[in-house]
């Protein structure tokens, strides 16, 4: 059973499916995809590593550098650090859309002025409903095949964005403690 979701074509499909689900949900919430898989933003090129950001979204004049992870495991620390450094270098708001993150990472992103949208569930592509049920039942892992991200999930980001626009000096301190409370 583990091989059925940890190896082969499903592994790549999970990443692409997660990105598509997030793109769809963000577009419904008024975000625009400014760029995909980028190592340059606003004429600033990232050359320190071979990494890129999954997306640059924009909403109301704010650029968000997004990393989308539809995995059961946490993003590796070195990759996490690089993505934060890229957002600083590009002068974009860090945005991590993930199944789960350590509280320390969430706090770090909030201190950098960014946001972590924690989904809690790994999203399997359409057509894998039976496998998702079996993985949940047999291995008790948080996987599902939703048709879309729930409006309330993205609303957490849009509420934060609205507060950030209204009172940017307060949002970082408030959301660091709030965001940590949302993670397991």
The number of distinct structural domains comes to 1
Q: Could you spell the SSE succession in H and E letters?
A: HHEEEEEHEHEEHEHH
| Strand residue content | 15-25%
Note poorly predicted spans.
176-184
Radius of gyration: 16 Å
Q: Can you list the strand order of the major beta sheet?
A: 1-4-5-6-7
CATH topology: Trna Endonuclease, Chain: A, domain 1
Tally of DSSP helical segments: 7
Structural class estimated from helices and strands: alpha/beta
Helix content: 40-55%
According to DSSP, the number of beta strands is 9
The coarse silhouette is globular
First-last Cα distance? 26 Å
What does this structure look like?
The chain is of the alpha/beta class. The protein has a single domain, classed as 3-Layer(aba) Sandwich (Trna Endonuclease, Chain: A, domain 1), CATH 3.40.1350. It is 49% helix and 22% strand. The protein contains 7 helices and 9 strands, in the order ααβββββαβαββαβαα. The protein has helices at residues 2-6, 9-28, 77-90, 103-111, 129-139, 151-166, 168-182, and strands spanning 32-38, 40-41, 44-45, 53-59, 62-69, 93-98, 115-118, 122-123, 143-144. The strands form 3 sheets. The protein has a 5-stranded mixed beta sheet, sandwiched between helices. Strands 2-3 form a two-stranded antiparallel ribbon. The protein has a two-stranded parallel ribbon with strand order 8-9. Strand 6 (93-98), helix 4 (103-111) and strand 7 (115-118) form a beta-alpha-beta unit. Helix 4 (103-111) runs antiparallel to helix 7 (168-182) and helix 6 packs antiparallel against helix 7 (168-182).
């Amino acid at each position: 059973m583990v091989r059925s979701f940890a190896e082969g074509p499903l592994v790549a499909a999970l990443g692409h499916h997660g990105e598509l689900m997030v793109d769809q949900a963000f577009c419904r919430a008024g975000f625009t995809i400014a760029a995909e898989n980028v190592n340059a933003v606003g004429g600033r090129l990232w050359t320190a590593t071979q990494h890129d950001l999954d997306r640059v979204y924009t909403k109301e004049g704010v650029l968000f550098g997004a990393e989308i992870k539809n995995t059961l495991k946490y993003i590796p620390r070195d990759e996490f650090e690089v993505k934060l450094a890229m957002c600083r270098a590009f002068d974009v708001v860090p945005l991590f859309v993930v199944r789960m993150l350590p509280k320390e990472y969430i706090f770090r992103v909030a201190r950098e002025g960014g946001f972590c949208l924690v989904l809690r569930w790994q999203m399997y592509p359409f057509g894998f409903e039976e496998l998702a049920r079996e993985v949940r039942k047999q291995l008790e892992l948080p996987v599902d095949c939703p048709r879309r991200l729930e409006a309330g999930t993205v609303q957490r980001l849009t509420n934060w964005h609205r507060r950030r626009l209204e009172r940017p000096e307060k949002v970082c301190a408030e959301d660091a403690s709030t965001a940590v409370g949302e993670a397991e």
